[in-house]
Design goal:
With 118 residues, the protein is an all-alpha fold. The chain is built from six helices and no strands.
Length: 118
């Protein structure tokens, strides 16, 4: 369940104190300026989760979304990563599945992720 996964994340981070900073460094490196503010949010979520296990789910969710965004950017999917960061890590949409601001080219995203079969 989500609670067990979140507690597992806290347990692993508790056993390897430097791991969180290493993960953040990798996310920060891959997100670059497109993820400005993400690392601060993750650090704040970790501080809260360290004293309130109930907020561990938020930390785990934010870590997973941040890692996914960083991986998109690392793979060279910059415009897709930009849309992902804006709609999943900030802004008004955050957890509304499928929402995408009209500034992002939805057709390009679909065509990139699901190229036509020839």
């Amino acid at each position: 369940s989500g609670n067990v996964m979140a507690l597992d994340v806290l347990r692993v981070l508790g056993r390897a104190p430097g791991l969180f900073e290493e993960v953040l460094a990798g996310i920060d490196r891959d997100l670059g300026t497109g993820g400005r503010g993400t690392i601060g949010v993750l650090k704040a979520a970790m501080q809260v989760a360290a004293t309130d296990q109930g907020s561990a789910r938020l930390l785990t969710e934010q870590l997973a979304l941040s890692a996914a965004a960083a991986e998109l950017r690392r793979l060279g999917a910059g415009r897709i990563a930009d849309a992902f960061v804006e709609t999943r890590l900030g802004g008004q949409w955050r957890t509304t599945y499928g929402m995408l601001d009209s500034r992002h080219d939805a057709r390009m995203i679909i065509d990139t992720l699901y190229p036509p079969v020839t």
